[in-house]
Every structure is written in C-alpha cells, then in structure tokens.
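Re: Re: token formats

Sure, here are both.
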Amino acid sequence: MESLRVTLPVGLVYDDEGSTVVDPDEEVRAAITDLFAAFRAGGSAYQVVAASRAEIPIAGLWRVWAGQLRWGRLTHSRVLGVLSNPAFAGTYVFGRYHSHRVVDPTRQCTTR
C-alpha cells in the first residue's frame, strides 16, 4: 500500500522506503545549510537575501528536468518558502489552504 506523498520543499527528498530525508546532493545541502545559518545570523528573510548573492535550487518538482538541478536566484519569497515549510520541523500538515464555493446574486459559482 502506498502512502500519501506531498511535494517536499527544496532540500528534502523521499528515499527508497518513502521516508523523508535530507537531499543527498552536497550542493543542495550546502545551500540549505547556508540559508538557515544566514537566517540565524540575520533574523529575517530580508537579511538572508541581502547577505547572500547565492542561488538555491528551485522549489517544487525541480528534479524532473532530465535529472538536472535547476538553480535560481535567492529571493525573499523562496527564502520564506523554505523557512515556513513545516517539513523542516518534521511535521506533516493537512489542510494548509482552505477554499469554499460561493454562489453570487448572478448565480455564478466562484471559489475563494
């Protein structure tokens, strides 16, 4: 029986048994380690970006391009994506995003 898998953040991967582990790629591990070290030193995502000219692997399905890593500029939103992801705390989260359907007076259905 297969378990539910969510997309992991940059720096974490699934191993052969389906467990979440730190990415075995040295460059990826170094980039994530540097990001967290810069956050501890500066205290904010803005300070991480300001203190670094580094690149970071692009989040999401970033290993699908013929097995090649894709690296992108370290931006505030990418730093926040790593720092706020509960997977780095070893936590599984369900229902992070909520939506509901609404029928407006013109009988149009919208999702919010």
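Second one below.
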Amino acid sequence: MTLAAPVSGGQMWRERRRTALLTLGGMLVALYVLYLTIKTYGLLDNLGALIITYLTFTLPFTIWLLKSYFESIPRELEEAALVDGCTWGWMVLKVLLPVAAPGLAAAAMFAFMTAWNDYLFAVILTSSINSKTLPVVVAGFATDVTTERTLMAASGVLAVLPPLLLAFLFQKLIVQGLTSGAVKG
C-alpha cells in the first residue's frame, strides 16, 4: 500500500486555475453555439431569441423544483378525489393546483426574476431599441463620455417596480412555497 505524495500549494493553485479555465471555456463554447444557432435561424435582434434562451435555462430548474413540490403533496388527496368521482383532469384542476399554488408561485417568481434581471443574453442577442430589455437600456445610459444619472435613476426605479409588485401580490404564496420543503414531517 503506497500513499500519494502530498500536493504542494503551487500545484493545487495550478489545478484550481486549470479547472476554472476549463469551466469558463466550456461556458463560452456553449454561448457561442447558442449564438450561432440563433443567428442561423434568423432570430438575432428578436425577442423570440430571448424567450427561447430564457426557457432553455430556467425550465429545467423550474421543472425540478415543481417535481419535488408535487411529490410532497399527499397521494391520498388524489385518491380521495378520484374515489369521489372526479376525472383525472378535474382532480388536477380542483385539488392539485390549489394545493400546489405556493410552489407554483415560487417557481414562477424564480423564472420571472431570472429572465427579468438577465443582462448577458439580452446584450448579446439584441441590438435595436425595439428588442432590448430594460437592464440593457438602463446600462446604455452610462457611456464613456457621459452618464445620464437622472435617466439611470428613473429607469432603475421603473425596473424594480414589476418584480416588487409581483412579490407583494404573491408574498404569502411565495413564502409558503419556499419554506414548504424545509421541514419534513
């Protein structure tokens, strides 16, 4: 039985740097492939490209979040509704969706905030003022020559209003959805 030689500090630093560079390189390659695909289909400078991109990145996590939430709903609720004569569709509509409302609200807020706050994809995939998102427009007020502080401040307030209003409207459901899986039992 032989033991591996201890790793020196310099060697560990080089390994971490190499891992970071490989990760960043992989992300850049994926971003480049996404850009080429959107360009090939003629979706550059189009809100459709942003919608497809946001769906691609938020849908897997949202589905995973909702899957675990729906699994936490007692199976007995479904069985009781079916025994009472509900069809599968009515059971989903009248029993599962109301019980799952907190999880749906939390997942919807996650997806909305991810798309609303995105800057990277919006700046890469859009160029005209008609297709730019609010974060890109707000960032455009700061240039090398001048910074339009009043426009930046006003647009910053406007950018915060929709998420803030949604959070206030669905506050109770969001808190229930985020804390529902915290304690088992």
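Residues 9-40 form the longest helix (32 residues). The chain has a mean pLDDT of 85.
- S.
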